[in-house]
């Protein structure tokens, strides 16, 4: 919002993923009532579609500019709680609403993603996730690769005394300050100071994004680092 990097999550500025998640949560009350997004532009449209489908009480309605939180509060006032299976906050201790990118973030996107964003910003969804735990969250997929030294393409053959790169991840999970000593250059590296080639996410504060390619993710990581003064890395997780 401030600075124009995010759009306020209201009305037509609510991402499709957020609308879809709430729709699935409502459809669980009456199997077969899921309403497809091509007929839904806003949270109030979503509510109206489920009322028309008979899955919600007649007369239930929200303002055209309502947020998802306001729609959820309205549902709760009628004793209706969407199925939490689709809450989509990945067991975080705190999470923001899902946002669309604002125009100030547009220059940090690749040409391909920027074209899609210009056609419909709701295809790009972002959510901030915070975890107040002793151990960081680790997000990897089947694309996890061996790390390399910064600026070097060749993967590290070994990371003694760790038996493998996966063991180093385990050590950093137990102690986020864990370091690997490189015998070749004499330097010590924390886990995210190595280059994991866009395959490893780890931390207590994460921003989850949908609809980005690698160039765009790296562009937004650079933007966040610039705004916060903190280093930022990004990764792609396959499911």
Kindly list the characteristics that best describe this protein.
239 residues, alpha+beta, five-stranded antiparallel sheet, two-stranded antiparallel ribbon, 6 helices
Description:
This protein has 239 residues and is α+β, with helices and mostly antiparallel strands. Among the domains are: 2-86, no CATH class; 146-193, no CATH class. The protein has six helices and nine strands. The chain has helices spanning 16-27, 43-52, 68-77, 111-119, 165-174, 214-228, and strands spanning 6-7, 94-95, 99-101, 125-130, 137-139, 179-181, 188-190, 201-203, 205-210. The strands form three sheets. Strands 1, 2, 3, 4 and 9 form a five-stranded antiparallel sheet that branches. The longest helix is centred in the C-terminal third of the chain and has 15 residues, at 214-228. The protein is elongated and about 70 Å long. 29% of the residues are buried. The mean pLDDT is 91.
């Amino acid at each position: 919002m401030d600075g124009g990097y995010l759009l306020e999550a209201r009305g037509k500025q609510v991402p499709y993923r957020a609308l879809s998640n709430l729709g699935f949560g409502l459809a669980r009350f009456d199997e077969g009532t899921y309403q497809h997004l091509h007929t839904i532009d806003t949270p109030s449209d979503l509510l109206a579609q489920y009322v028309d489908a008979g899955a919600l009480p007649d007369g239930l309605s929200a303002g055209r500019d309502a947020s998802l939180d306001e729609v959820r509060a309205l549902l709760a006032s009628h004793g209706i709680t969407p199925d939490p299976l689709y809450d989509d906050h990945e067991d975080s201790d705190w999470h923001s609403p899902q946002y669309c990118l604002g125009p100030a973030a547009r220059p940090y996107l690749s040409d391909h993603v920027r074209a899609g964003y210009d056609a419909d910003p709701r295809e790009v969804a972002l959510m901030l996730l915070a975890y107040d735990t002793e151990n960081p969250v680790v997000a990897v997929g089947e694309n996890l690769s061996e790390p390399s030294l910064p600026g070097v393409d060749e993967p590290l053959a070994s990371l003694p005394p760790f038996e493998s790169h996966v063991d180093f991840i385990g050590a950093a999970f137990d102690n986020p300050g864990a370091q690997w000593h490189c015998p070749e250059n004499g330097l010590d590296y924390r886990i995210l100071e190595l280059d994991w080639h866009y395959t490893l996410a780890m931390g207590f504060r994460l921003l989850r994004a949908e609809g980005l390619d690698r160039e765009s993710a790296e562009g937004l990581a650079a933007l966040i680092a610039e705004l916060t003064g903190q280093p930022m890395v990004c990764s792609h997780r396959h499911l």
